[in-house]
Design brief:
- This protein has 289 residues and is an alpha+beta fold.
- It folds into two domains: 55-175; 192-286, no CATH class.
- Helix content is 24%, strand content 33%.
- It has five helices and 16 strands.
- Strands 1, 2, 5, 6, 7, 8 and 9 form a seven-stranded antiparallel beta sheet that branches.
- The chain is elongated, with a radius of gyration of 33 Å.
- The protein starts with 23 loop residues before the first helix and ends with a strand.
- The relative contact order is 0.15.
- Keywords: Membrane, Transmembrane, Transmembrane helix.
- Residues 1-20 are annotated as: Disordered.
- The chain crosses the membrane at residues 25-46.
Length: 289
């Protein structure tokens, strides 16, 4: 019997040939090549890109930046109308990089003592004296009675200070933020014995009738000089601190004069003397200038 076609309807088209699939090995090769490209980019980035979070640089990498910033802070902080004192670097091993990973933060402070009502103006002058690369900025509260300085020394090392209108002393704090530990780094360095102390230190020591084996903290200044604070603690306190210092402060710029705390400038040297509980403490600071 002959095939019968329905009138007006064409014969159905044959189904399309199945698409040829690429061999599996081609896909594997493409994925492997892309993985190699990503790995190469990651290695290059680690070696060449700057860090994006402080956790990418351990505490040993951060310390040189902290030391450089401390020198810049000392240079900016010193002035003929104030007294400064350089603190020793301190290490806080209680900070946390993550909830389960501990770290260490290094800080160094420069204490500034000023006369009453001078703190805001002195803070402004310090901000102007810091390197422009630090982008120092001062912010004020709504009542314009508290003032905060913030600056970025680079590599996540910061500089900050806060003063009130009535502050007579404040600390400029240089800090690394929390960093990973570094092997071989001494986090409890012994105080360094001082060499020949400034004449102003020796004069104050004689005035209070004490003997001491002073220690020293030094920082390298941006202008190539070295600033240092010589300190003697646990000294025998005089019966009357002000009376004992009467002769050595004659002709000096006295910034602070209280029964148990004196701060003054003997020429270019900042001197701080305090007593309490039967013991006294004396420091003298030579700055970058």
């Amino acid at each position: 019997m002959a095939a019968v076609n329905s009138p007006g309807y064409p014969a159905p088209a044959p189904p399309p040939a199945p698409e040829r699939r690429k061999p599996r090995w081609v896909l594997v090769a493409v994925v492997a090549a892309w993985a190699l490209v990503l790995a190469a980019v990651a290695v290059w980035s680690v070696r060449h890109d700057p860090p994006t979070v402080p956790e990418q640089r351990d505490i040993a990498d951060a310390l040189p930046v902290l030391r450089e910033a401390a020198g810049a802070v000392v240079l900016a902080a010193d002035g003929p109308d104030r007294v400064i004192e350089i603190g020793a670097p301190a290490f806080d091993r209680e900070c946390g990089l993550t909830p389960v990973r501990g770290g260490v933060e290094a800080t160094q402070e420069v204490t500034v003592r000023v006369r009453a009502d001078q703190a805001p103006a002195v803070l402004d002058s310090i901000a102007r004296g810091l390197p422009k690369a630090y982008a120092p900025a001062i912010r004020h509260n709504a009542g314009n009675t508290r003032h905060a300085l913030r600056a970025d020394a680079g590599d996540f090392v910061g500089v900050d200070a806060t003063v009130s209108d009535d502050s007579t002393s404040f600390a400029l704090r240089v800090s690394t933020g929390c960093r990973p530990f570094a092997s071989g780094l001494d986090l409890d360095p012994a105080p360094r014995p001082a060499g020949e102390p400034p004449a102003a230190f020796s004069a104050a020591l004689r005035a209070i009738g004490a003997q001491a084996a002073p220690t020293v903290v030094e920082v390298a200044c941006p202008n190539g000089r070295t600033a240092a604070t010589v300190t003697a603690a646990d000294l025998k306190a005089p019966a009357d601190l002000g009376r004992s210092l009467r002769d050595v402060v004659a002709g000096a710029l006295v910034v602070q004069a209280e029964p148990h705390a004196w701060a003054y400038r003997a020429g270019e040297v900042s001197v701080v003397v305090g007593d309490g509980g039967g013991s006294a403490r004396l420091s003298a600071t030579t700055s970058c200038r």
